[in-house]
Amino acid sequence: FTPSSSWDAAYERELQTFQDVGDAGEIWFGEESMIRIIRWLEKQKVPLDSSVLDIGTGNGVLLIELAKSGYTNLTGIDYSPSAIRLSEKVREKEGMSNIKLKVEDFLAPSAELSGFGICIDKGTFDAISLNPDNAVGKRKQYVRSLCSVLKPEGFFLITSCNWTKEELLKEFREGFEILEELPTPKFCFGGRIGNSVTALVFQRK
Question: What positions does the domain Methyltransferase occupy (predicted)?
């Protein structure tokens, strides 16, 4: 697991690279996971003005893609100030001034972080789960935070490379029900087929 200081260092390096060459750096889950999320929103005919929160936005590239797809009410949060600086640079380069970006710790969200129709998580729940310092308590706090920022009937799209569908159902059973599992690439290992990535859509009760 990478403690927050080294995430910050990683984003600092990406910030430097972005300033030098205009490259947004690592996209943790690759293009297909972004396309998968956007396709689902389009298939559900989620209104383009729905409020969307990207939890652990990193370099903000998912928000840029959502903005390009026509979504207008977008917010990204990250607890790493360097990540937010990087995503601000990416936002400026793309000319997407309507994307809101904030430094926030999702485990202690500020009061104005509420009333979202859609929350998206690519890898943030994974990172919190790997925290050696009270991971179980942090996961429970994550679910509480999610309940406080996502409005009832709101959608939660989670992409994870650490948790199976069954485990995620258990983690989010209080307050959420599963709507569907999104198809993800399969990998084959020793004759057994498994998923390297799990992508689920929950709805807040």
Answer: 51-180
Cβ atoms of residues 100 and 74 within 8 Å = yes
96: left (phi over 0), alpha (psi -120 to 50) or beta: beta
Q: Cα–Cα distances in Å, from 23 out to 20, 78, 82, 93?
A: 8, 19, 15, 10
What pLDDT sits at residue 7? Answer: 74
Which residues in the chain come in under a pLDDT of 50? 1, 23-28
Tokens of 198: 């799990």
**pTM, two decimal places:** 0.86
Question: What separation in angstroms does the CA of 196 have from each of 38, 43, 142, 200, 203?
Answer: 20, 24, 23, 13, 23
The CA-CA-CA angle for residues 42, 120, 93, to 5°, reads 80
DSSP code for 60: -
Parallel, antiparallel or unpaired: strands 198-204 and 150-160: antiparallel
In DSSP terms, which residues pair with 178 in a beta bridge? 202
Bridge partners of 159, per DSSP, are 122, 199
Q: Could you tell me which residues come within 8 angstroms of residue 181 by beta carbon, excluding any fewer than 6 positions away? A: 165, 198, 199, 200, 201
Question: What pLDDT is attached to residue 129?
Answer: 87
What is the predicted pLDDT for the residue at 8? 78
Q: Which domains does the chain have, with CATH numbers?
A: 4-204 (3.40.50.150)
What is the predicted pLDDT for the residue at 3? 54
SS3 183: coil
**What type of residue sits at position 123?**
G
